[in-house]
TrEMBL record:
It comes from Austropuccinia psidii MF-1. Coiled coil: none annotated. The lineage of its organism: Eukaryota, Fungi, Dikarya, Basidiomycota, Pucciniomycotina. This is Integrase catalytic domain-containing protein. SUPFAM superfamilies: Ribonuclease H-like (SSF53098). The keyword Methyltransferase does not apply.
């Protein structure tokens, strides 16, 4: 029985059982079973079916479990030697009628780890890759993998299409573009009438000029069509979602509709025009 998980070269935690020692008052639980290799004089003694008991004060080795066909115990004062099949396997000292084995664990022990860190380190590798590494399986789900496997449903165009000019006008701002134009313009404003698909593009040097350019284009369109804009559709960019556009909508009595975030399909007329 061993109290350190690092002592095991292989360990299965499927086994759980109660352990009884000389101290009857202690309730010890073995939380796994595996193989431990002991190194002595450059020779390895393999101890299969060893129990992992975390609350054990010291490691215990049963002679009954390591009996060979021929096991010889040589004792000299306070020291002893165990020989099996003509080879010395263990030695140590006797103290309080107990044999204290002199050994150490090999440095090339198997690292006991969980699946999740290696799953992330290997670029979110699949379960088959993790299994081939000999790591214990885990039922924990990876949030990143789950999110990346989500598929967005196809967008269905259920808008009520405008029949007359200026019944619905779409607007969008693009930029900053790099490099800028020869004249120093960094942005362009696209306005498209849904009914006629008529497009107007204005170049802007500053994002703050969006409102002033829109009002100019709006007046021009309303003058030519002898009609007023009834609905304006845009995204929720700060160049559109502000007090200036809100006041203009109240004064001119048109509806300003904003597309939801991260759904450019709702303002598809302007996006396709870009």
């Amino acid at each position: 029985m061993f109290h350190s998980e690092s002592a095991f070269t292989s360990l299965s935690k499927d086994t759980t059982l109660a352990v009884t020692t000389g101290d009857s008052s202690s309730n010890l639980i073995a939380e796994g079973m595996g193989t431990v290799n002991l190194l002595r004089n450059n020779q390895i003694l393999k101890l299969p079916n060893s129990l992992f008991v975390p609350k054990l004060n010291c490691n215990l080795i049963s002679l009954l479990k390591i009996f060979y066909k021929e096991l010889i115990i040589n004792q000299d004062d306070d020291s002893f030697t165990l020989t099996a099949e003509g080879k010395e396997i263990l030695q140590g000292k006797t103290e309080n009628n107990l044999m204290k084995v002199d050994y150490h664990l090999p440095t090339a022990n198997k690292v006991i780890t969980k699946e999740s860190p290696w799953h992330e380190r290997l670029g979110h590798a699949g379960r088959s890759v993790i299994k081939s590494m000999g790591l214990p399986p885990s039922n924990d789900s990876c949030k990143i993998c789950t999110l990346n496997k989500i598929h967005q449903l196809p967008f269905k165009d259920n808008f009520e299409h405008a029949d007359l000019p200026l019944d619905c006008v779409h607007v969008d701002l693009v930029g900053p573009i790099s490099p800028p134009s020869i004249s120093g313009f960094w942005y362009f404003l696209t306005i498209i009438d849904q009914a006629t698909s008529y497009k107007i593009v204005h170049l802007l040097k500053n994002k703050l000029d969006t409102f002033s350019h829109f009002t100019i284009i709006k007046k021009m369109m309303e003058t030519q069509q002898d009609r007023s804009v009834k609905k304006l559709m845009s995204n929720q960019g700060r160049e559109f979602l502000n007090s200036y556009f809100k006041q203009l909508a109240n004064e001119c009595r048109f509806v300003h509709v904003f597309s939801p975030e991260y759904t450019p399909e709702h303002n598809g007329f302007a996006k396709r025009a870009n």
